[in-house]
Amino acid sequence: TSTESEYDIVVIGGGPGGYVAAIKAAQLGLKTACIEKRGSLGGTCTNVGCIPSKALLNNSHIYHQTTHDLKSRGIDVENVKLNLVNMMKAKDKAITGLARGIEGLFKKYGVTYLKGHGKFSGADKIEIDGLDGQKTSVRAKDIIIATGSEPSPFKGLEVDEKQIVTSTGALSLEKVPEKMVVIGGGIIGLELGSVWHRLGSEVTVVEYLSSIGAGMDGETAKSLLRILQKQGLKFKLDTKVIDASKKDGKVSVNVEPSKGGNKEILEADVVLVSIGRRPYTENLGLENVGIDVDEKGRIKIDSQFRTSKPNIRCIGDVTYGAMLAHKAEEEGVAAVEYIANGHGHVNYDVIPSVIYTHPEVAWCGNFPFLANSRARTNDDAEGFVKMISDEETDAILGVHIIGPNAGEMISEAVLAMEYGASSEDIARTCHAHPTLSEALKEAALATYSKPINF
Ligand code: FAD
Ligand code: NAI
Asked: Any idea of its EC number (predicted)?
């Protein structure tokens, strides 16, 4: 038997983009449903992304600090042992707690949670293949696609999530690999490479380009490289992976210099493929409604998140822009506001990026080295804050931070930029002493005048 129900808005995908959109829609009084096929809300971020990676980063940092750093701080500890099973349990607890929390919010605000795979059969109709085996369908005046992304495959390397893994497998390894090769020195490679290095793996990151951090500011990337190398991670830059083969429980990875040269074989117990992510639209039935995607598979939208079918909007990783949870969330709210009120807004100029290594790296703002902008650096042992502001107006154009708590500190810069602040505005704002945020004030001072403490 098949049933059909009707809603004002149906959201496909329960990740940070989708669940936030659904809650916002319900809060604005619209009858809302959210379709999610994973069996758990929160999407990539909560289940196999931000949350598990940050849980492992935090706890592996505590372990590493305990084994490497406590003695010099005057704390003697003995018999410190890693219990990976329990570390994974702590991670899983964070995931289930947060995913259930979202389910609770759906109940609180009256969002109907439809568990199953959604597929378009018409511009206002979606067939649902339920996780319980039931087939149902829903109709809605407005639909939001928020189906997210998946790891980009490496041609010729078959992922088994045990020996050759994506981030998903790397978040659930059953033992610490002796040797790990990471393909791609971007955000995932650096974060998860750090996790397993701290837990005892010999980690080698192979990066095709001559710098790490997937396009972050060059000076910051160089500094991060030096710091991570000092910690013991190995890097092979300007190097490309040709192929890899499994034998006797090991993986041999063939690499060669990007510009040609002598081949080399890297032996590994686990290979992490982290060369980027791609939009996910599998079996979504886009062809049934004529929704266009671009050459990278991203769903095409206009400035109001409308696809080629105006009543179907699209947000998050599956369309243009940074693949970040907070970006997807902002779009979720804005897309719903367009539907409900006719206007919404996301300021793409100030979406912060954070790499949760230790130290953390954070940045926001456009970062062209324009002739009319100037950059000064406030350097200290643990990294630096770099602020770029307009030479004429002093308006802040971008901020790059490398240091402990950079991810928290960047919010001050984002807020300042959102309100169009100048570097002088930050420099003249009183910051508590001693705090890390004083570094931002000093950088601001350095940008418009001279730093006091440097
Ligand atoms: P997703 O979170 O991918 O959610 C889409 C959901 O849609 C999925 O749950 C999927 O099951 C569901 N779905 C897809 N198709 C259908 C269908 N047809 N029917 C029903 N359901 C469907 N970002 C940060 O900002 N900070 C971080 O620290 C961070 N860390 C990360 C760490 C890792 C290891 C990874 C992989 C990613 C990380 N990200 C981080 C990126 C972040 O996870 C994504 O940007 C974010 O999840 C995108 O949200 P979304 O809602 O667009 O899509
Ligand atoms: P990425 O785009 O950050 O980095 C990929 C890296 O792989 C680049 O440096 C690229 O030059 C390199 N590369 C590509 N092909 C290669 C090849 N054949 N051989 C060697 N190197 C190659 O992608 P990543 O790390 O997979 O992460 C995907 C996305 O997930 C991120 O861009 C980000 O949007 C999101 N993410 C965000 C996090 C955060 O906000 N802290 C954490 C983790 C992921």
From this structure: 1.8.1.4
pLDDT in tens, 346-366: 999 888 999 999 999 999 876
- pLDDT over threshold 80, residue 403: yes
At 194 the pLDDT is: 98
pLDDT on residue 34: 98
Q: Is 433 a catalytic residue?
A: yes
Model-wide pTM > 0.90? yes
Q: Is 53 in the pocket of ligand 1 (CB under 6 A)?
A: yes
Out of 61, 358, 431, 433, the active site residue is 433
Ligand 1 centroid to residue 399 C-alpha, Å: 26
The DSSP H or E segment spanning 22 is: helix 16-27
**Helices 325-341 & 16-27, crossing angle to 10 degrees?**
30
Expressed in angstroms and rounded, the spacing between residue 436 Cα and the centre of ligand 1 is 31
CB 52 less than 6 A from any atom of ligand 1: no
Ligand nearest to the CA of 257: 2
Q: What is the mean pLDDT of the chain?
A: 93
State residue 221's pLDDT score: 95
Q: Which of 72, 77, 324 lies closest to 188 in space, CA to CA?
A: 324
Spatial separation of the C-alpha atoms in residues 125 and 121, rounded to whole Å:
6
pLDDT of residue 215: 82
Compute how many other C-beta atoms are within 10 angstroms of the C-beta atom of residue 59.
Answer: 20
Which ligand is closest to the CA of 154, given by its number?
2
Nearest protein CA to atom 36 of ligand 1, as residue: 49
